[in-house]
Amino acid sequence: MTDAASQLFPPPPEFVAKARLDAAGYKRMYEASVSDPDAFWGEQGKALLDWIRPFTKVKNTSFKGDVAIKWYEDGQLNVAANCLDRHVATRGNQTAIIWEGDDPTQSKHVTYRELFEQVCRFANALKARGVKKGDRVTLYLPMIVEAAVAMLACARIGAVHSIVFGGFSPDSLKDRILDCDSTVLVTADEGVRGGKAIPLKANADKALESCPDVSTVFVVKRTGANVPMKAGRDISYEDSVAAASTDCPPEAMGAEDPLFILYTSGSTGKPKGVLHTTAGYLVWATMTFQYVFDYRDKEIYWCTADVGWVTGHSYIVYGPLASGATTLMFEGVPNYPSVSRFWEVVDKHNVSIFYTAPTAIRALMRDGDAPVKKTSRKSLRLLGSVGEPINPEAWLWYHNVVGDGRCPIVDTWWQTETGGHMITPLPGAITTKPGSATVPFFGVQPQLVDADGKVLDGATDGNLCIIDSWPGQARTVFRDHKRFIETYFSTYPGKYFTGDGCRRDEDGYYWITGRVDDVINVSGHRMGTAEVESALVAHAKVAEAAVVGFPHDLKGQGIYAYVTLNAGEQPTDALRKELVAWVRTQIGPIATPDHIQWAPGLPKTRSGKIMRRILRKIAADEHDQLGDVSTLADPAVVTDLVENRQNRA
Ligand code: WTA
C-alpha cells in the first residue's frame, strides 16, 4: 500500500453538520436495509416515487435456478412522470438541464416545464410513427438536450430505449440495432467534440444499409450540416416536434416493465443487452443520487459522463431529474479549448457537485496545478469518481488541488448491471481512504470468495460477489436469460458475480482491484478483449489474435494485441497501422490498440486454450514472473514473445 492510501479523511465537520446522514445514521439505515428489506424498500419506494397504482409486494427475488428478480411487482408508475410531471407544479420554472456546448460561448437553460413540453411533443412524434409500449428505439446522439428528451419520451410511452454511444462505429451501431430489433433510430446530423465534427448521420446511414427493418430515423439538427435524408424513412426532429401536441398522458407501466437496454461488454462474445426495468431501477438511481451526492434543493450538479454509458443514464438523467435537481449536460471534452475547461464550467454555472472519471483526473493532473488554480471553484462542495479504480495519487490531487482540501470525495464503485452505486462512501458519514470505494450502500451485501467459491472472511483479497438482490439490479439480458444466468450467477452459484477482484481491509473497507475476467477498462470505457480479438481476426490477413489489457498511466489500462498473420503475410509497420485503423472502424476509436505484437504462435495449453495469464505478464513487462509454463503445448513460443515484446519500460 502506498503512503497516500493509508491516510484517513474524516468528513469535515461543516459538511457533517448539514449532511443528510452521519455515521450513526448510515449504520442504522444499513442494518435496517439488510435485516428487513421488505420494510426498508417498501418505505423508500413510497417516499421516493409517485405511483399510478401503489405496490403491495416489495421483494420477490431469487439468485438460484432460473434467477427471477422482481421488485414492487404489482405497482404501476411512469418514469417520465416521476422525472417531470410531479415537478412541474412545484418547480416548473426551475432549471432542469443546463446545457454547456463544446464551444464555450454556447450554453442554455431548460426549465422543468420546458423539458416536460419537449418530452410530450417528442413522445407524440414517436407515437405518430407507430411506436408503442414495448417497442425498442435506438438513440445514437451527441450530448445535447434532445438526448434526455428522447430517453424520457420513450419512457413516457413505454418504449424501451437503447442508447449507442456516439463514439461507436457504424458496425457496432448496426449490431446493436439488429440485436434488439429496433425499427426507430434517433440521431443527429453531426456531433461536436473538442472542436471536431462527428458524422453521426453518415455513420447511421452506413449502419442502416444492413438494417432493413428500420423504418423511421429522426434527425436532430445540431450543426446544420447538409446530410442526405432518405425519403419516407428520415424525418427532421425539429419539424416533427413542432407539429406535435404537448398533451401526452404518461403510460401506466408495470414496475417490472422494461425501461431500457444498454449494451455492455463481457468476457466472451458480442456485447449483451443488459435490461433494466421501471420501478426498482428508478428507486435505486434516485436514492443513490440523493444520498451519495448528498444533493440539496437548488444545487447545480454536474456529471461529466456521456449518456451513452450507464453513468449518463442514472446520474445525468434519471436520478437527478427524479429528484428535481438541476443537472448539467456537457457536450465537450476536458481539454478543449484548454485544460482549464472543467473548472471554468464549474465557475460559470456555480457547480456544487462534480462527478467524473479517474482517467480525466490523471490526464489533467499531468498539466499541473496552474490551470486549476487560476479558477475559483468556490461553489464546489463534493467531488465524485467513477468508472475505474482511482489511484491514491490522483485521489489526493483531486482532493487537494481541485477541491482545495475542502470537498469530500465519493469514489463510487458500480456497474452497468447494478443500475447505480453499490460500494461508496456517504460523504457525511464515512471516513474515506484514497483509492478505496469504502463501504456498501443500503441493501448491498458484498462477499469475497476465492477461485473455488470458498467464502473469505476478514481482511483478504478475493473475487467480489453480491449475495442478495437490490432494487436497481438488471433483470436479464435482452432475449437471452440463459446468458444472464451463465454470466452472472453460474461462476459462484446463488451469488451475483461482479467480475471484479477486490481487497477488504481490517476496517472492512473495500478496495476494487480491477477485473478478474477478460474485460478491460480503457479510460473508464468497458471493453471485452474478445470483441477486439474478433475485430482483428475479421481482417483478411489475420489468422489469430489474443488481446489483453496492460497498465497505462493515463488510461488505466491500454490495449495490447498479439497477432498471428496468415501464412505468407509480411509483418510490416504499414500492416500494423492498417490493423489499428481496422479495429477503429470495426468497433470505434475507444478500441484503438496501443500495441500490436506479431506473434508467430500463441501460448496454448495442450487442449488449445490460450494462456492469457502469460500474455498479460508479457504485456505488463513482467515477463520475469511468468510462473509455470510447463503445461504449454510449445513453451518455445513464450521465448519469442518475450524477446519481441512491444511494451518495454
Ligand atoms: C469498474 C461503470 C474501481 C469495475 C459505472 C466495474 C470501478 C466496471 C469503479 C463497470 C470504481 C467502476 N472503482 N472500479 N469506483 N467504478 N469500476 O459497466 O471494474 O461501464 O466492474 O459501469 O468498471 O463498468 P461499467
TrEMBL record:
<dbReference type="GO" id="GO:0005524">
    <property type="term" value="F:ATP binding"/>
</dbReference>
<feature type="binding site">
    <location>
        <position position="523"/>
    </location>
    <ligand>
        <name>CoA</name>
    </ligand>
</feature>
<protein>
    <recommendedName>
        <fullName>Acetyl-coenzyme A synthetase</fullName>
        <ecNumber>6.2.1.1</ecNumber>
    </recommendedName>
</protein>
<dbReference type="GO" id="GO:0046872">
    <property type="term" value="F:metal ion binding"/>
</dbReference>
<feature type="binding site">
    <location>
        <position position="500"/>
    </location>
    <ligand>
        <name>ATP</name>
    </ligand>
</feature>
<keyword id="KW-0067">ATP-binding</keyword>
<feature type="domain" description="AMP-dependent synthetase/ligase">
    <location>
        <begin position="85"/>
        <end position="466"/>
    </location>
</feature>
<dbReference type="InterPro" id="IPR042099">
    <property type="entry name" value="ANL_N_sf"/>
</dbReference>
<feature type="binding site">
    <location>
        <position position="542"/>
    </location>
    <ligand>
        <name>Mg(2+)</name>
    </ligand>
</feature>
<dbReference type="InterPro" id="IPR032387">
    <property type="entry name" value="ACAS_N"/>
</dbReference>
<feature type="binding site">
    <location>
        <position position="515"/>
    </location>
    <ligand>
        <name>ATP</name>
    </ligand>
</feature>
<dbReference type="Pfam" id="PF13193">
    <property type="entry name" value="AMP-binding_C"/>
</dbReference>
<comment type="function">
    <text>Catalyzes the conversion of acetate into acetyl-CoA (AcCoA), an essential intermediate at the junction of anabolic and catabolic pathways. AcsA undergoes a two-step reaction. In the first half reaction, AcsA combines acetate with ATP to form acetyl-adenylate (AcAMP) intermediate. In the second half reaction, it can then transfer the acetyl group from AcAMP to the sulfhydryl group of CoA, forming the product AcCoA.</text>
</comment>
<feature type="domain" description="AMP-binding enzyme C-terminal">
    <location>
        <begin position="531"/>
        <end position="609"/>
    </location>
</feature>
<dbReference type="InterPro" id="IPR011904">
    <property type="entry name" value="Ac_CoA_lig"/>
</dbReference>
<dbReference type="InterPro" id="IPR000873">
    <property type="entry name" value="AMP-dep_synth/lig_dom"/>
</dbReference>
<dbReference type="InterPro" id="IPR020845">
    <property type="entry name" value="AMP-binding_CS"/>
</dbReference>
<keyword id="KW-0007">Acetylation</keyword>
<dbReference type="GO" id="GO:0016208">
    <property type="term" value="F:AMP binding"/>
</dbReference>
<feature type="binding site">
    <location>
        <position position="311"/>
    </location>
    <ligand>
        <name>CoA</name>
    </ligand>
</feature>
<dbReference type="GO" id="GO:0003987">
    <property type="term" value="F:acetate-CoA ligase activity"/>
</dbReference>
<feature type="binding site">
    <location>
        <begin position="193"/>
        <end position="196"/>
    </location>
    <ligand>
        <name>CoA</name>
    </ligand>
</feature>
<keyword id="KW-0436">Ligase</keyword>
<feature type="binding site">
    <location>
        <position position="584"/>
    </location>
    <ligand>
        <name>CoA</name>
    </ligand>
</feature>
<feature type="binding site">
    <location>
        <begin position="387"/>
        <end position="389"/>
    </location>
    <ligand>
        <name>ATP</name>
    </ligand>
</feature>
<dbReference type="InterPro" id="IPR025110">
    <property type="entry name" value="AMP-bd_C"/>
</dbReference>
<dbReference type="Pfam" id="PF16177">
    <property type="entry name" value="ACAS_N"/>
</dbReference>
<comment type="similarity">
    <text>Belongs to the ATP-dependent AMP-binding enzyme family.</text>
</comment>
<feature type="binding site">
    <location>
        <position position="537"/>
    </location>
    <ligand>
        <name>Mg(2+)</name>
    </ligand>
</feature>
<keyword id="KW-0547">Nucleotide-binding</keyword>
<dbReference type="Pfam" id="PF00501">
    <property type="entry name" value="AMP-binding"/>
</dbReference>
<feature type="modified residue" description="N6-acetyllysine">
    <location>
        <position position="609"/>
    </location>
</feature>
<feature type="binding site">
    <location>
        <position position="539"/>
    </location>
    <ligand>
        <name>Mg(2+)</name>
    </ligand>
</feature>
<keyword id="KW-0460">Magnesium</keyword>
<dbReference type="InterPro" id="IPR045851">
    <property type="entry name" value="AMP-bd_C_sf"/>
</dbReference>
<feature type="binding site">
    <location>
        <position position="335"/>
    </location>
    <ligand>
        <name>CoA</name>
    </ligand>
</feature>
<keyword id="KW-0479">Metal-binding</keyword>
<dbReference type="GO" id="GO:0005829">
    <property type="term" value="C:cytosol"/>
</dbReference>
<feature type="domain" description="Acetyl-coenzyme A synthetase N-terminal">
    <location>
        <begin position="26"/>
        <end position="83"/>
    </location>
</feature>
<dbReference type="GO" id="GO:0019427">
    <property type="term" value="P:acetyl-CoA biosynthetic process from acetate"/>
</dbReference>
<feature type="binding site">
    <location>
        <position position="526"/>
    </location>
    <ligand>
        <name>ATP</name>
    </ligand>
</feature>
<feature type="binding site">
    <location>
        <begin position="411"/>
        <end position="416"/>
    </location>
    <ligand>
        <name>ATP</name>
    </ligand>
</feature>
